[in-house]
Amino acid sequence: MRRLFIILSISLFINSYKLHSQAIYPVDKWMEYVEDLAEETEDTERIENLYADLSYLSEHPFELNTVTEEQLKRLPFLSDRQIARILSYRERYGKILTVYELKNIEELDYQTISLLFPFVYIGDISVEKRAFTVKNMLKYGRNELQIRYDRCFQQKKGYRAYPDSVLQQYPNRKYRGEPFYHSLRYSYTFDDRLQAGFVAEKDAGEPFWNAYYKGYDFYSAHFFLKDMGWLKSLAIGDYKMSFGQGLVVSNDFSPSRTALVTQAERRINGFRRHYSTNEQDFFRGMAGTVAIRNVDVNLFCSYRKLDAGVDSFAFTSLKTDGLHRLRRDWEKRRTIPLLVYGGNIRYAMPDFHIGLTALSYSFGKYRMEPDLKPYNLFYFRGSNNINIGVDYMWKNNRVKLFGETALSKNGAVATLNALALTPTSYISFLALYRYYDRRYQALFGNAFAQGSTVQNEQGLYMGLRLTPVAYWRFSFYADLFRFPWLKYGIDVPSTGQEYMAQVDYTPHERFTAYLRYKYRKKAENYTGSDRPLVAITPYRQHRLRFQQVYNISSWVLKSSWDGVLVDRAFRPASKGMMLSQHIGWRPATVPFQWNGYVGWFHTDDYGSRISSYEKNILYAFNMPSFYGHGIRVALTFRLDLWKSLSLSMKIAHTSYFDRDLIGTDTEEIASSRKTDLYALLRWKF
């Protein structure tokens, strides 16, 4: 272990090596962007969706001479000013001959170009759209089939054999299905205007082909048309939607507190296909957009069934994990009908837009009735609700204003408003204020917030990004917030603060490094042997991260160090650290690439856990958390068997030095080691 520590430390702090051959840009820079987002949220489903969407776009990049403003807005790391400069450069100088011309655009620094490179290319310009004929669809349509299989090699408690007498008394001790994950995804696309496909999935532990059930646990299908003249989009089957800043409805990941400190606006409005294994965050039915000059009219209707435990047509909460492994899971499976309908009308000009969104949802004869607690006094109760919101945006070359104000059926208000300033290409500033009434209720709301819901929160966020000299970038943000009412785990109204400072250094194309510090202060309940009554105490968390990346010919070396310190009243401080090293080899002439990862971690407890991103198979995001003392090793490779057939595999192993059991309840493993296999076979035809 001492030897491993020395090797990682040497790799981490050596920074004098330089090469002077042709520039190689790190193709995985955008993955670090998603990693940064994942550190600040527990919304793993939407993070995985964002990662899958960006993975798809990196596999199907935009042609730089024909890419549109709407397409570039799908890349969340690009600002409006940067998008405008890319398009104006093309208009002024004509056809872009190489992607390296992007370096001539003043607003694009090296970090942004590194993020953008995997999503653009230079190719043949085709202005005419192909006609929708059977011949063209057969000739030019693109098919893709993905088959995925995951498995843990160690046996978990839920898969053990139990006597029938035990299972009759304790039926939820044993999973009903097989110990592997499996999914099947197929898609067809034509000229980027027609998308159709389906998804089938079973989670590990869910029955696939046995006495309990035959077939996949989850099925999804979609048919999506867009850019058909006045019919801007048409969705049949499963789809996603987002409007405004997410106070009424959004299926997208909520941009929040990241190193891209001045980009917190939602820019994507409208409908998109649902082509993921997320079993909860989508709509099922029909939706469409009609474009009449500068006005878009959006209408939608959805009906599907949700999971919940029902007692006399009442349920306390919705089950949202999508798992159906135990008998109690099957008793809650698809019990609650949900009908959603509404619309949005949006008037948009290049520098201004305003929109109105209205949405109604109903559980039919069922009622949501959470068990009454002081903290959930203002949660939604009933069988139906309505949300209405108005969003806006106005901008010029240096100033941008955007926001949304929404109402729920009970008259409560939620509002978010922001001011973005970009006086020069090397300075940007954002101030964002949000007020979410404690009584505001929006089942599909998903907006900028410290909490997981658009409710019971007020806050002022300020972000500043500076690029004062070559090679250096400085990013800062401060978020001051308060919760006017009680929250789960906090029995009084409370306040909090969060700060971040980051320095990025990029001396040349082959080396990048950054140092980041984050501080968070919140309140929490405390009950100890010395305090029989609940006390409200401060919770302070300090996080420090250093990372450097080398690109040497076809090799990528990434070294990281993470440290965390958690300070709680009446308890000893909790601390932890992690050292990790990533090595990747991606030759240009061989249809094979591999990535290796090794990480050593040592934390005091779960409160000081550390998350670390590691490469996974195609379209899959993986950023596990670790606590205690141990080592993590992972090896990922991708082999292109033929031009249209590729195989991605990963094997990951974790060894703990401080325990003999891993996990809890039915996920418990009676070992100090855990090994997982992930495999994906993709066929494009």
TrEMBL record:
A Pfam family: HHH_3
Family matches, as InterPro entries: RuvA_2-like
Designated name of the protein: Helix-hairpin-helix domain-containing protein
